[in-house]
Design brief:
The complex is a heterodimer of chains A (178) and B (191). Helix content of chain A is 15%, strand content 39%. Chain A is of the alpha+beta class and 178 residues long. Chain A has one domain: Deoxyuridine 5'-Triphosphate Nucleotidohydrolase, Chain A (Distorted Sandwich), CATH 2.70.40. Chain A has a 5-stranded antiparallel sheet with strand order 4-3-6-13-9. A 4-stranded antiparallel sheet of chain A has the order 2-15-8-10, with no helix packed on it. Chain A starts with 7 loop residues before the first helix and ends with a helix. With 191 residues, chain B is an alpha+beta fold. Chain B folds into 2 domains: 4-158, Deoxyuridine triphosphatase (dUTPase) (Deoxyuridine 5'-Triphosphate Nucleotidohydrolase, Chain A, Distorted Sandwich), CATH 2.70.40.10; 159-191, no CATH class. Chain B is 17% helix and 38% strand. Chain B has 3 helices and 16 strands. In chain B, the strands form 5 sheets. In chain B, strands 1, 3, 9, 11 and 16 form a 5-stranded antiparallel sheet that branches. A 5-stranded antiparallel sheet of chain B has the order 5-4-7-14-10. Chain B has a two-stranded antiparallel ribbon with strand order 2-8. In chain B, a hairpin with a 2-residue loop joins strand 12 and strand 13. The longest helix of chain B is centred in the last third of the chain and has 18 residues, at 165-182. The chains are: A alpha+beta (178), B alpha+beta (191). Chain A binds chain B through residues 4-10, 12, 26, 28-34, 36, 66, 72, 94-106, 132-134, 137-140, 142-144, 147, 152, and chain B through 1-5, 45, 48, 51-54, 56, 72, 74, 76, 88, 90, 92, 105, 107-110, 112-113, 126-128, 130, 151, 153, 156-159, 161-164, 166-167, 169-170.
């Protein structure tokens, strides 16, 4: 058996069993095999740190409405939904197709098993959003930001993943900053 | 049963059964589990509408050859292939790896079941293509633009899906613009 993509029925079952949490959860945002994530807050990258990451300062809360991006501006965005994965699932994120006609691009990684909690604390999922235009551009939060789907590896043969030395350092750095 | 990614043999089977359409279809572009999409036309975003989207004006047809992007220019690209999905399948996009050595980036979403036609009209799949360089850069259409793969959920138990109010509004705004370009005002009930 190989990793397979859960349908909305199976995503709902995973949530009932506590192997996946999407909070807050809106049934209308659960599509055939994706959950539609909504943008929540924007953060401006500040000075660069030794590990290559950037400090972040709060820039905007989408409850206050759309945000006008500066030409070519890149900001960090957090979603409304807090996601935790406790089972052997991997979450993968696709940009919302509405970004294309809004002229924004998204940078997002994957969510590994265990994602969502760092030592008893909530782990935020961050993505990068960039205005692709040479002019100011409004981002409207109601148009969504990304879609998350999952690949289910429960019942498959796998080796327990190990962290590399670089990943451990990165984790320590993040913990230190938090 | 969970969703399974289709192999090329299964993609062909879906094409024969009309579950998926990819037109024009060229066998040479069908890989192990992907179909290579070719760029057709470029569109320049113009002024921003109240819903956040931008109007587009036609700029270039790749039938006329490569296109020279301005430094850091973002354009909307439509593929040559018209894709429709009739069954419980989802299409997902990966940028063509040739974009890396051409120094372009791609923004693309997914294709949901029912994708491809709105009412009687063809629904265009749009993607965003950006020149990542600070200097002019030619985009060559022969290198492709994206690869589409399909995940099949037809044998799976699925919940009925619905649109959120925001999604209905997006659809209504798009329809309104399409009709306004065609024959005048949009009379449907507001949400």
């Amino acid at each position: 058996m190989y990793g397979t993509t859960p349908t909305n029925t199976q995503i709902a079952e995973l949530m009932e069993r506590g192997q996946l949490h999407i909070d807050p959860f809106e049934p209308e945002n659960l599509k055939l095999a994706h959950y539609r994530l909504r943008p929540y807050q924007l953060w401006t990258p500040g000075p660069q740190l030794e590990d290559g990451s950037h400090m972040r300062t709060f820039a905007h809360d989408f409850r206050d409405g759309p945000k006008k991006f500066l030409p070519n501006q890149y900001l960090v965005v957090t979603p409304v939904e807090h996601i935790t994965i406790t089972g052997y699932l991997v979450g993968s994120v696709l940009p919302a197709s509405t970004l294309v006609e809004q002229c924004f691009a998204l940078t997002a990684g994957k969510l590994d098993p265990g994602y969502g909690r760092l030592g008893g604390r909530k782990q935020e999922f961050i993505m990068g959003i960039k205005n692709m235009l040479d002019e100011p551009n409004y981002f409207h939060p109601e148009r969504g930001i990304a879609n998350i789907s999952f690949v289910d590896f429960r019942g498959t043969r796998f080796q327990e993943p190990q962290w590399t030395a670089a990943e451990k350092d990165d984790f320590r750095d993040r913990e230190h900053r938090a | 049963m969970d969703g399974q990614m289709l192999s090329n043999a299964q993609i062909l089977d879906c094409l024969e059964r009309g579950v998926i359409t990819l037109e024009p279809f060229d066998h040479r572009n069908l890989r192990l589990a992907h179909y290579r999409l070719r760029p057709s036309q470029l569109w320049r975003p113009s002024h921003q509408l109240p819903d956040g989207s931008h109007q587009r004006t036609f700029l270039h047809d790749f039938g006329d050859g490569p296109y020279e992007f301005r430094p850091k220019e973002y354009l909307v690209v439509t593929p040559l292939e018209h894709v429709t999905i009739h069954g419980n399948l989802v299409g997902s996009m990966l940028p063509a790896s040739t974009l890396v050595d051409q120094c372009f980036s791609l923004t693309a979403g997914k294709l949901d079941p029912g994708y491809g036609n709105i009412g009687e009209q063809k629904q265009d799949f749009i993607m965003g293509l950006t020149n990542l360089l600070d200097k002019p850069n030619w985009f060559h259409p022969g290198q492709g633009v994206a690869n589409i793969a399909f995940t099949d959920f037809r044998a799976s138990k699925v919940l009925p899906t619905s649109w959120s109010i925001d999604e209905r509004r997006i659809f209504q705004d798009r329809e309104r613009r399409r009709r306004a370009e065609d024959d005048g005002p949009f009379y449907d009930e507001e949400i």
